[in-house]
Amino acid sequence: MIKNMDKTDKKRYTSVNRYFMECVMSADINNAFATKQAATPVKEGVEPSYPYLVYESQEDLDRLEAALTELRKTKTGAQLIADATEHQTPIRLDKAMRAYGSYDEVTNNLKLNANNDENRMVGTLAHELRHAQQFQKGILLDAYLDTPKTYIQNQAAIEADASATSCAVCYELALQGNDKPLEALRQKDPHFVNPFQNAAVKGGLADGSAYQAAFKGWFTDYMTRDSYDILYIKMARQRRSNCTREEEDKKFERVVPVADVVEKVCTCNGKPYMSRKETEEFFATPDASTVSFERFNNIYANCYQKYDLKYSDMENEMKNKLGLTVRPHSNFMPRAVVPEPLPIPTVESRQAQAAEKIAAAKQEKAAENKPKITVNVILQKRGNQGK
């Protein structure tokens, strides 16, 4: 077919074919045939509120600004934005990505899926900004240098923490009367949103117990954990392709205790929301050291020479030398038991509670200032009367 084309037709055919393949490989195929509307030029003289926004049109800028505006309404979100500003983290929309969002710690770039709706965008931005904040604190995470158990557990920890942080931002907005971002988050991830909310209703925002509830809830979704096991294998292969000779000699050796990572980045109000003991106990449970069956075999293939693993006794060898055990595919794992969410306190109810606390505090202070009549005072008064 191509042989019978002239040069112009060949060029056009190649260009169209390449465009079609890119659409199929990187985005929803329906978008390949959608009517493309011309982007609205950015208004002159408009300065974005966040200095490191990257955008191609006024629509992109408006959507990014809308998400940032919602985050700034919350204490947690405002701090995330302040830290990202300090570290000059670019934020942009990506029309081709499949995930809700991503943060690249190497390039310090944050991307949000342009197909997210405005409510999902809020939680996703909070999640990815938390990742930026985590790496700004200097955590160590390398799929090729770290032992498999180190990487898998630390990767899970930072994902669980970012998920808890997105809950915090969306819950704070719900307390202000806008529960749409929280409901958008709950629609896909009730296994950590509901535990967070139930703990937060009982005061868990102040002491960090809400964060801890969401953190632990993240581990109950085995489909998500399977996807990150797959990502680990991809990252290890990618690092291997550009590693140095020195790194090749030290592959899969580095141990970074997960308790160190949790202590450094899993914080609420400036303090870790899980103690070192709680972290060590949680990750010492058998389930926290499991890997999906398919990835278990991949890890064996990567490490059998390094650790002299015997294929005839693979499971015991992996358990004894790498600290990993195999679990079935997520389709065969128990579904998470998701608790029903407790109702979020309304603005009116919280105002009433605050008024009651203020009144009680005033009464207590008045009682403290009231002169106390002691036995000595009474006897002294009687003595004065006798005189």
Structure description:
The protein is α/β, with parallel strands linked by helices and 387 residues long. Helices cover 58% and strands 6% of the residues. The protein contains 17 helices and 8 strands. The strands form 3 sheets. Strands 1-2-4-3 form a 4-stranded mixed beta sheet.
Mean pLDDT: 87
Major beta sheet, strand line-up: 1-2-4-3
The parts where pLDDT drops under 50 for at least 5 residues are 1-36
Q: How many E-type strands?
A: 8
Strand content: 5-15%
Helix content: 55-70%
**Major pleated sheet:** 4 strands, mixed
Descriptive key words:
387 residues, alpha/beta, 4-stranded mixed sheet, 17 helices, 8 strands, 58% helix
Please specify the SSE layout and strand pairing.
Blueprint: H1 7-26, E1 53-54, H2 58-72, H3 75-86, E2 91-94, E3 101-104, E4 109-113, H4 118-136, H5 148-175, H6 180-188, H7 190-201, H8 204-207, H9 209-218, H10 222-241, H11 245-249, H12 258-265, E5 267-268, E6 271-272, H13 276-283, E7 290-292, H14 293-303, H15 314-322, E8 325-327, H16 347-369, H17 375-386
Parallel strand pairs: 1-2, 2-4, 7-8
Antiparallel strand pairs: 3-4, 5-6
Helix pairs in contact: 2-3, 2-4, 3-4, 4-5, 4-6, 5-6, 5-7, 5-9, 5-10, 5-12, 6-7, 7-9, 12-13
